[in-house]
Amino acid sequence: MDGSGIRRLGVLGSGKGSNFVAIADAIAAGTLPAEVAVVISDVPDAGILRHAADRGLPALHVHPGGFRTKLDEEAEHRYRQTLLDHGVDLIVLAGFMRILKGGLLRSFEGRVVNIHPSLLPSFPGLAAWKQALDYGVKVTGCTVHLVDQGIDTGPILAQRAVPVVDGDTAESLHARIQDAERQLYPAAIGALVRGEVTVRGRQASGFRS
Ligand code: GAR
């Protein structure tokens, strides 16, 4: 069935969970040959945990420690252990607003994916749709990439372009980008799970959107 040895997804998110819902729906529809092993959030009342619990999936708040934008060392250990305990093969970042580093990344090297709401390498970091709007670009989009030690710098697996239209607000543009994300992310994860994607250095090939 799958050609990569990847089957069990560990989804990390901090927000409302629309990407998670798209992934869970693709699994339920049989178009994404994987299962969600666990959903973890750093935010106790995050929508993503509610969506996971509604689907009967393990949904855990794991305390992120004292920093605002990353996990402290003990928290990183807690996240790593929780993911290992649930037999996770692939970490799927779905709006997780903290940087992953060190031991956690080493344990899952090449097996952490993220979706970012811009066409990287443009507009890494926070509120990328607002950065694009403020800059005045006419096309932006979303990017699925492997996670490395940098911020939004890992090899790019898939991208989808989204137009910026006259009169767009940050909210309207983000909503249009999120529509694209909900299509692109399950499709890109599916290609990874089926072993269709090859990554050599920065060059990833094999994903057909
Ligand atoms: C998504 O738009 C995702 O691209 C973004 O957070 C949102 C989460 O929405 N991620 C980042 O900005 C990461 N740097 P969701 O909780 O509805 O999936």
Considering the chains and any ligands shown, give keywords for the structure:
209 residues; alpha/beta; Rossmann fold; seven-stranded mixed sheet; 9 strands; binds glycinamide ribonucleotide
What does this structure look like?
The chain has a single domain (8-195), classed as Formyl transferase, N-terminal domain (Rossmann fold, 3-Layer(aba) Sandwich), CATH 3.40.50. The chain is 34% helix and 22% strand. It is built from six helices and nine strands; from the N terminus they run E-H-E-H-E-H-E-H-E-H-E-E-H-E-E. The chain has helices at residues 18-29, 47-54, 73-85, 102-107, 128-135, 170-193, and strands spanning 8-12, 35-41, 59-61, 90-93, 112-116, 139-146, 156-163, 198-200, 203-205. It has a seven-stranded mixed sheet. A two-stranded antiparallel ribbon has the order 8-9. Helix 1 (18-29) links the parallel strand 1 (8-12) and strand 2. Helix 1 (18-29) packs parallel to helix 6. It starts with 7 loop residues before the first strand and ends with a strand. The model has no long low-confidence stretch (mean pLDDT 96). It binds glycinamide ribonucleotide (GAR).
